[in-house]
Here is the input.
Amino acid sequence: MSYPEPRYLSDRGAISAKYRPAPEEPDTGFIGASTISYVATEDTTGGEYGLYKVDMGPKTIGAKEHFHRAISESFYVLSGEVQFYNGERWTTGGEGDFLYVPAGGLHAFQNDANEPLSMLMIFSPGAPREEYFEKAAEYAERNREELKAFQARHDTYFTDMPDD
Here is the structure.
């Protein structure tokens, strides 16, 4: 394995670092007792990755079994315990644990514990996940066709939604 081809070709570095102070409030409420903070969106990183902090309350369902066709998804547990599903079985992840799911990999997660959970989610390459986080609950209330179109637009394919 080698480094990718250079994308920056000048002999001098550029002044291009972006600092973002921590928000006072999470950026969005999500389904159930979860909040998601936008640490680095695809706009911030030029599409290289998206980084999000997920805070889940006790006994909270996260995402049911699904996969992505174009993006990988990774999880890093900051505190608490999370149940990860890797397409075969559930396993408990705790502080410092990491799960990488390549494109096409089945996965799910939830907080079965009586304590809150905090973790980072990384999508690579970066994708405009914010609309998905902000409107998934709204689309879940709409008709099946609109929901499936919304999910497909956001590269999210749930296994419990047959194709008709």
